[in-house]
Amino acid sequence: MVAAMTTKIEDLMLNITEEIHVKAPLDVTFETLLEQLGPMNQVGPDRPLPMKLEAWPGGRWYRDLGDGNGHHWAHVQAIKRPTLIEFYGPLIMSYPVASNLQYRLSEEEGGTLIKFQHTAFGLIQADHREGIRGGWSYTHELMRKRAEAKVRGR
User: Fold this and answer.
1) Where are the domains of the chain?
2) Which helix (DSSP H) or strand (DSSP E) does residue 144 occupy?
3) How much is the pTM?
4) 3-class DSSP state of 109
5) Which of 51, 64, 109, 112 could be joined to 22 by an S-S link, Cβ 3.0–4.6 Å?
6) Beta bridge partners of 106
7) Arch. (CATH architecture) of 9-152
8) Contact at 8 Å (CB) between 100 and 119?
9) CA-to-CA separations, 49 to 19, 36, 39, 71, 90, in angstroms, rounded
10) Spatial separation of the C-alpha atoms in residues 94 and 103, rounded to whole Å
């Protein structure tokens, strides 16, 4: 007897959107975002996960474990300082999946608005589906606080 697959198309898709309001200028917010996604990245309190981010078209976004070891997350698909950075790749998922990640920044009254979108298609594991949304929110909140602290420190 052969079991039938009952995977629905919705099980293969992930779409996360978020708006982040930052009380800091556009240029400060963009540079802080790059820092947060790169060397300042962390996945929880006292859980650093520093990344390398080559912020140019085709640049890599990866975790360097030293001695030629690491984990490739994505490539920079597009960058237009200080209003856009876009990535494509598997991100945290080490199985058949394709992701597109976009950060679109614009000036707003009192600071910067970031429109974030993570779209993915593939065999997305349930634990990743559950954890990804909270992970991005955590990252974005750290970035917002750091950007606003830079402005207060001027």
Assistant:
1) 9-152
2) helix 126-152
3) 0.91
4) coil
5) 112
6) 113
7) 2-Layer Sandwich (3.30)
8) yes
9) 23, 10, 8, 11, 17
10) 23
Cβ atoms of 64 and 88 closer than 8 Å: no
Residue 129 in tokens: 């589906």
- CB contact at 8 A, 135 and 112: no
Beta bridge partners of residue 119, listed in sequence order:
15, 100
User: For 1-13, how does the pLDDT look when each residue is reduced to its tens digit (9 = 90+)?
Assistant: 555 556 788 778 9
Give the CA radius of gyration of the chain. Answer: 17
Long-range contact list for 141-144, CB < 8 A, 24+ apart? 142/36, 142/40, 142/42, 143/20, 143/22, 143/29, 143/32, 143/33, 143/35, 143/36, 144/20, 144/21, 144/22
Q: Is residue 114 scored above 60 in pLDDT?
A: yes
In this structure, the chain runs to a length of: 154
**Confidence band of 137 (pLDDT split at 50, 70, 90):** very high
